[in-house]
């Protein structure tokens, strides 16, 4: 049995939540768990006839393990299988098959001796019991937190996971110190009537199980692809010239972000060409010490001991030359001269017009259309005439006629005078009615 959306194992399909657009069988979908994998060898034929009998089975959140297909069942990514467990059996979803399983087992140092077995493909009864157990997990977690709070234990119940047959329940908790939960297990056993298993996890493992969105806008690395949690310290931030701000450097788990180690090697390679940040230069104007380093531009900022407010940026090669002069017993020239030699003014081009205040205003698009209309008749511009004017030194005049004021005529005429061109209106006389003498 596999996911109802028939896209299990497809990297371009996401069945993360139950919704109108999502997968309706999110509990049985091979792509609806954290740490999803993509079998890039699925379309490649195996050159050897012998195929591996091991498959990778995933359970709730990021829990995975490898099982042996002893009965040679036709398994594929997304198949729901019943596997061996202690006690009873568990139900999971096949997440990887083929030759990639051997690579993963070698990477995680899993031995092929005495492996756990796959019993069968899960039937309808197994899946119903599994779904019923999964449905009780949220209520059990809330009740377990209340019991631990009543016992005044310094711990936090992060997640609860039922076994596929409901014979065992595992509580994942976080704590800063050792917790004596002997009384807690008794309370849990009497309340839930099943076998209790307690597992302590770290804060990073808690963030991986819960999941979330990081400050970069993407899903957390620990819940999508990161499995090995390496130690991160503040030196990684110092090498990358980052401000030591705990609020910005801390992730959702409260620890330093794992992504601080991603580009650390590249920064260390680039800093190998830089002199030490504690370098001092003995110049004519006094000693100067390093304040700041720009890894990308390969520049270093120096300031005098007496005038620490004025900074001078120098190229790395120039700094090395100054250091070699000091080793020979010579004093370096002033930093002002070195800065002026290499300062090249760079004109900034405002491509997107951020500094233009009227960039959102509608400009007059018809401003250039009236320029091509007929100009008033005037003397044509002769090139010979222009050359003669230049030779004589006389100022050139434009051929455009002077504009006369429009109100000149109106001022000369009296107010009651009528315009000359306007003619008086003629009214036709109506004929008088004829008199009838016979009346």
Proportion of strand residues? 15-25%
Shape: extended
Q: Level of helix content?
A: 25-40%
Strand order of the largest sheet: 1-2-5-3-4
Quaternary organization? single chain
**What Rg is obtained from the alpha carbons, in whole angstroms?**
43 Å
Sheet of most strands: 5 strands, mixed, barrel
Note the total helix count.
13
Unreliable residue runs: 1-22, 24-32, 407-417
Q: How widely separated are the two ends?
A: 123 Å
- What is the string of SSEs from the N terminus onward? EEEEHEHHEEHEHHHHHEEEEHHHH
Which class of secondary structure composition applies to the elements? alpha+beta
Tally the beta strands: 12
Output mean pLDDT. 78
Write up this protein:
There is one protein chain. The protein is α+β, with helices and mostly antiparallel strands. Among the domains are: 123 residues, no CATH class; 72 residues, K homology (KH) domain (GMP Synthetase, Chain A, domain 3, 2-Layer Sandwich); 42 residues, no CATH class; 63 residues, no CATH class. 25% of the residues lie in helices and 16% in strands. It is built from 13 helices and 12 strands. A 5-stranded mixed beta barrel has the order 1-2-5-3-4. A 4-stranded antiparallel β-sheet has the order 9-10-11-12. Helix 3 packs across helix 4. It is extended and about 120 Å long. The termini are far apart. Pfam families: PSP1. It comes from Kaistella yananensis. This is Regulatory iron-sulfur-containing complex subunit RicT.
């Amino acid at each position: 049995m596999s996911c109802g959306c028939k896209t299990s194992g497809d990297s371009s399909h996401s069945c993360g939540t139950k919704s109108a657009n999502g997968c309706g069988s999110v509990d049985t979908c091979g792509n609806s768990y954290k740490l999803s994998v993509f079998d890039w060898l699925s379309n490649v034929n195996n050159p050897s006839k012998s195929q591996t009998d091991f498959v990778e089975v995933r359970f709730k959140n990021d829990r995975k393990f490898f099982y042996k297909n002893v009965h040679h069942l036709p398994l594929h990514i997304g198949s729901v299988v019943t596997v061996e467990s202690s006690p009873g059996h568990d139900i999971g979803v096949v997440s990887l098959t083929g030759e990639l399983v051997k690579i993963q087992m070698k990477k995680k140092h899993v031995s092929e001796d005495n492996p756990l077995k796959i019993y069968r493909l899960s039937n309808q009864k197994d899946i119903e019991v599994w779904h019923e157990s999964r449905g009780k997990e949220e209520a059990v977690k809330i009740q377990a937190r209340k019991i631990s709070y009543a016992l005044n234990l310094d711990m936090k119940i992060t997640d609860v996971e039922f076994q596929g047959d409901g014979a065992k329940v595992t509580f994942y908790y976080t704590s800063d110190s050792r917790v004596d939960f002997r009384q807690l297990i008794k309370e849990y056993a009497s309340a839930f009537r099943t076998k209790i298993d307690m597992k302590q996890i770290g804060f990073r493992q808690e963030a991986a199980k819960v999941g979330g969105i990081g400050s970069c806008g993407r899903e957390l690395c620990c819940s999508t692809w990161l499995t090995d949690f390496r130690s991160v310290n503040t030196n990684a931030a110092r090498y990358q010239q980052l401000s030591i701000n705990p609020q910005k450097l801390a992730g959702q788990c409260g620890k330093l972000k794992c992504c601080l180690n991603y580009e650390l090697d590249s920064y260390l390679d680039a800093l190998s060409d830089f002199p030490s940040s504690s370098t001092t230069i003995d110049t004519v104007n006094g000693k100067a010490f390093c304040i700041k380093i720009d890894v990308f531009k390969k520049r270093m900022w120096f300031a005098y001991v007496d005038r620490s407010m004025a900074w001078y940026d120098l190229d790395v090669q120039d700094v090395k030359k100054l250091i070699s002069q000091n080793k020979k017993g010579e004093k370096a020239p002033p930093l002002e001269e070195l800065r002026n030699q290499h300062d090249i003014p760079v004109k900034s081009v405002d491509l997107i017009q951020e500094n233009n205040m009227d960039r959102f205003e509608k400009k007059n698009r018809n401003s250039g259309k009236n320029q091509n209309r007929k100009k008033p008749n005037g003397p044509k511009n002769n090139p010979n005439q222009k050359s003669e004017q230049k030779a004589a030194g006389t100022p050139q005049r434009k051929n455009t006629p002077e504009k006369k004021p429009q109100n000149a005529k109106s001022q000369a005429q009296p107010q009651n005078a009528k315009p000359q061109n306007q003619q008086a209106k003629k009214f036709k006389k109506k004929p008088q009615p004829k008199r009838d003498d016979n009346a």
